Amino acid sequence: MSHEFGAELRRRRVHADISLNEMARRLNFSKGYLSKIENGRQPPTEQLARLADAELGANGKLAALVQRTGPDQPNGPDTEFTHPGRREVLAFGSSLFLPLGITEADAEMAAEDPQTRLYYRDQFDRLRKRGQQSAPGLVLRTVAIEYCTLVELAEAAPHPQGRATFEILAARYAEYAGWMAQEAGDNQASMAWTRQSAKLAASAGDQAISAYALVREAELAMYARDATRTISLAQQAQHHVGADPRVKALAAHREAQGHAMLNNGHECRAALDRAETLLGNGVHDGPGGSPLGSTTVKDLNLAVSGWCTFDLGRPKQAAELLERALSRTAPTARRARAMYGARLALAYEATSDLDRMCEVASQVIAIAQPIGSATARTELRRLTRAMARRHNYRPAKQLHVEITAALFGFPVS
Question: Where would I find the HTH cro/C1-type domain in this sequence (predicted)?
């Protein structure tokens, strides 16, 4: 791979009449390092391949020579995850020494009371806000317990409409549990919760949540660096019978990110344009009350565009887009700020703006540590690998120590 990529890089560079010194300047790499790449004496990084591909207008052909052929981690087995019946719920509660069991009469009465439904809708909104600022494991515990109670209430509801109402609410809780499990770093549990959400929604006759579950699976594939699966799932979501404009827009974002990983610039931009059009009507309530997907980033299309632009080898433009997106994101949206902030630090490293890289990365560490964001940690790991070539820049050395401490949970002095 090293020899093939190096030879093709040199061929395209010479054809474009760009000297090795000028190419190194444009890519923010040293001339000696680039020479080793071209001679096959140094394996190319994925980041360098994307930057060179964009600079030489190779339309993904150069980057494809170092493209990952599969996911970084397996998606896990397609485990059946059916929602528990009353016995399973009670057994689950007993195992935690929690009084989850309620009498059938009390469950039926609660299911009939409109205030019960209002409580769980409001509680869901509170948990989503808490999830932006607390460790995912803490939030997941509450979500799981509330989910089990909702399943009991659905079974106790005397009328089909009441049962469907509680099943939809339980599906929303299950979907959010999947996101918290992902943020906790347990992708297999995340997949199980996500699929459980789709099953509950289908049982209640709601297709929108089932369509959104495909968006979430596409996101899991994206973080596993499986671009082909990301695109496939995102396209399935867009064609799902229950996909409303918002779900289609969120699916288009995942498709764009998948195309960006493959350096398919034209397809990526087309998906982003579709998402922007679909989001033009604003954010509306979803099944059970709250909108599906993230609502903490005010201009979600701008943030995802910045994310994709970095993967397409345009770090300077990516930094500009991400800065604008974060400036419109509330300080309380800590999880979103950590995730996109880590990507912003990567963009500044690629442009050799190391002072700003250190500043942004330090902010991300301060945010990501207390909330335990696995997605932010993934981006920070990429940053440590990219920073390996910055060994002569003293602040970068200290930052490397701080990131390593954050990744392994040690306090940063």
Answer: 9-54
DSSP 291: P
- In order, the DSSP letters of 21-79 are HHHHHHHT--HHHHHHHHTTSSPPPHHHHHHHHHHHT-TTTTGGGG--SS-SS------
Question: Of the candidates 173, 191, 172, which has an alpha carbon nearest to the alpha carbon of residue 182?
Answer: 191
Please report where in the chains the tokens 């701008």 appear, as a residue.
302
DSSP per-residue codes, 79-99: ---PPP-HHHHHHHHHHTT--
CA distance 345 to 109: 53
Residues in Cβ contact with 117 at an 8 Å cutoff, skipping those fewer than 6 apart:
165, 166, 169
Cβ(241)–Cβ(216) below 8 Å:
no
pLDDT tens track, the chain, 413 positions: 567 888 888 888 888 888 888 888 888 888 888 888 888 888 888 888 888 888 888 888 888 888 654 444 444 444 444 545 545 544 544 444 444 456 667 777 777 788 888 898 899 889 988 888 888 888 888 998 889 888 888 887 878 887 888 889 999 899 999 999 988 888 888 999 999 898 888 888 888 889 999 999 999 999 888 999 999 999 999 999 888 899 999 999 999 999 999 999 999 999 999 999 998 876 666 676 778 887 778 889 999 999 999 999 999 999 999 999 999 988 888 888 888 998 999 999 889 888 898 888 888 888 877 777 788 778 878 877 777 777 677 776 677 767 776 665 534 33
The answer to whether 207 touches 241, Cβ cutoff 8 Å, is yes
Q: Which long-range contacts (CB under 8 A, 24 or more apart) does 358-365 make?
A: 358/395, 358/396, 358/399, 361/399, 361/402, 361/403, 362/399, 362/402, 364/337, 364/338, 365/402, 365/403, 365/406, 365/412
**3-class DSSP assignment, residue 155:** helix
Distances (CA, A) of 228 to 93, 298, 409: 40, 29, 33
For residue 184, the 8-state DSSP code is: T
Q: Is 353 helix (H, G, I), strand (E, B) or coil?
A: coil
Kindly report the pTM of this predicted structure.
0.79
Task: Give Cα separations from 319 to 35, 50, 214, 233, 310 (angstroms).
Answer: 27, 16, 29, 28, 8
3-state secondary structure at position 297: strand
Instruction: State the amino acid at position 119 in one-letter form.
Output: Y
